[in-house]
TrEMBL record:
Sequence ranges assigned to domain C3H1-type in this UniProt record: 1-28, 139-166
SUPFAM superfamilies given in the database record: RNA-binding domain, RBD (SSF54928)
GO biological process terms, semicolon-separated: mRNA splicing, via spliceosome
Full protein name: Splicing factor U2af 38 kDa subunit
Amino acid sequence: MAEVNCSFYFKIGACRHGDRCSRIHNKPTFSQTVLLQNLYVNPQNSAKSADGSHLVSNVTDEEMQEHYDNFFEDVFVECEDKYGEIEEMNVCDNLGDHLVGNVYIKFRREEHAEAAVNDLNNRWFGGRPVYAELSPVTDFREACCRQYEMGECTRSGFCNFMHLKPISRELRKYLYSRRSRRHRSRSRSRDHVGTRRTRSPSPRHGHHRGGGGGGGGGGGRRDREVKK
């Protein structure tokens, strides 16, 4: 009997059966998309009682959005500055172990994604090692739960399709304007011949695994106070 590919892994880059799945998980050798497994830790999901049920969180919606925006900006800015232009970045708000906190970064070029995987697997973020791999996902519309987008998903956070967590309008506007500035800067640089100026590394960048430590952001951040 011919072996069958796992449609969930192909569409979503993750499968609830993991290595026990009876179908084949064809891991790509090249892709524009990088998966950072379980990277985002939602404070509202971390408070659980002994039976596994969620405790009532005293974190407000505004604080929750700020925490998430800070995380998203840190990862997006550092990865784009270090590895290459990002077309799309998405974070899963699901609760299932195979999807919770997953970050998908789709780079413009496959070689940028490959460089990111090779480097990030030697890094730490938030005191935990980063687990990065190339993902088969390229069309997030196919991977997303349409019922969730319409507010009608009955499977809650344990749905096997992506429930993507949105960033604030303010952050989206900032990242868009940042990208526009980068494009204009590149256009101007084509008209001038010169030596590239190297930027000193941010002290907030994640350390290599050999040295432990946490993750971090990059240059060009929004002017705002970051709550600890």
